[in-house]
């Protein structure tokens, strides 16, 4: 897949379309309030709850938005399929990665996650204002890449041994082992899954681009294997997917429904240590 993350130091502002994805899982209004008080000039705002998810659906806590809704989002953002796109949040958060994965799924292969957060972007001297842009509506048609998407059926087949994919749980080790579950009603993990806490991807609050992350991931799963990542609701699995892609893993899928979707089906099996 190649390069996923990009540093603000390497970006020419005018070469990219900008997407602001700042959000807080504790306060859903925080992100848009930050955006309205200042953002990268010409950046549009994509909201985790209303743009990148469909909370009316039952497939987990942050279900995948329908394709029709995503197409309208892309078009009102004014995107073209070959645009260079820079997606940012507060840095070290999962929200830019969620948007980036959706862009990749839709065929926008020139999209990147900015390593630094908004404050560092501003300090780097990029143009910032509080104006709401009005991009020209496009007629873009996505090129959906179903090979990076894992529907529930695929995960069920993986659990039953019908695929070669390896399940990788991005939650904390305590949640993975079923020792604690602060959010979902049933503790545990999807049977057969391995664990790599997404917090291990960070250093000093930002995603760590050092070789040490690659080494750590390779101790859990071989880069030659197909990997299906999940977390609690599909959000924090996105940066793990992105970091795997950055470090040479070529066959990766994201189970957007994740553990919250898995346990929503009566009788779904879980494992605990």
Largest sheet: 5 strands, parallel
**What is the count of β-strands?**
13
Instruction: Please name the CATH topology of the largest domain.
Output: Oxidized Rhodanese, domain 1
CATH class of the largest domain: Alpha Beta
**Spatial extent as radius of gyration:** 18 Å
How far from one another are the termini? 34 Å
Count of the separate structural domains: 2
The appropriate CATH architecture of the largest domain is 3-Layer(aba) Sandwich
Shape: globular
Measured by DSSP, the beta-strand proportion falls in 5-15%
Mean pLDDT across all amino acids: 97
Residue runs with pLDDT of under 50 for 5 or more positions: none
CATH superfamily of the largest domain, please?
Answer: Rhodanese-like domain
Overall structural class, as computed from helix and strand content, comes to: alpha/beta
Following the backbone from N to C, one meets helices and strands in this order, namely: EEHEEHEHEHEHEHEEEHEHEH
The residue fraction in helices comes out at 25-40%
Number of helical segments? 9
Strand order of the largest sheet: 1-6-5-2-4
Describe this structure in words.
The chain contains nine helices and 13 strands. The chain is globular and about 50 Å long. It folds into two domains: 5-144, Rhodanese-like domain (Oxidized Rhodanese, domain 1, 3-Layer(aba) Sandwich), CATH 3.40.250; 147-262, Rhodanese-like domain (Oxidized Rhodanese, domain 1, 3-Layer(aba) Sandwich). The mean pLDDT is 97. With 273 residues, the protein is of the alpha/beta class.
């Amino acid at each position: 897949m190649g390069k996923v993350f990009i540093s603000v130091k390497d970006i020419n502002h005018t070469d990219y379309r900008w997407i602001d994805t700042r959000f807080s899982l504790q306060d859903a209004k925080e992100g848009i309030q930050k955006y309205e008080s200042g953002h990268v000039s010409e950046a549009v705002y994509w909201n985790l709850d209303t743009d990148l998810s469909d909370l009316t659906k039952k497939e987990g806590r942050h279900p995948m938005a329908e394709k029709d809704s995503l197409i309208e989002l892309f078009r009102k953002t004014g995107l073209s399929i070959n645009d260079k796109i820079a997606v940012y949040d507060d840095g070290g958060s999962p929200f830019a990665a969620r948007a980036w994965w959706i862009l990749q799924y839709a065929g926008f292969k020139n999209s990147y996650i900015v390593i630094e957060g908004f404050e560092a972007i501003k300090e780097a001297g990029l143009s910032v204002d509080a104006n709401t842009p009005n991009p020209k509506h496009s007629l873009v048609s996505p090129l959906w890449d179903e090979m990076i998407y894992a529907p529930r059926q695929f995960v069920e087949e993986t659990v039953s041994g019908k695929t070669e994919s390896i399940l990788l749980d991005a939650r904390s080790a305590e949640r993975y082992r079923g020792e604690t579950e602060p959010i979902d009603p049933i503790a545990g993990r999807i049977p057969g899954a391995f664990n790599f806490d997404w917090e291990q991807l960070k250093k000093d609050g930002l995603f760590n681009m050092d070789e040490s992350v690659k080494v750590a991931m390779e101790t859990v799963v071989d880069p030659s294997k197909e990997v299906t990542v999940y977390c609690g609701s599909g959000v924090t699995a996105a940066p793990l997917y992105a970091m795997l892609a950055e470090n040479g893993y070529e066959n990766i899928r994201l189970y957007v429904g994740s553990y919250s979707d898995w346990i929503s089906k009566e009788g779904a099996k879980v494992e605990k240590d």
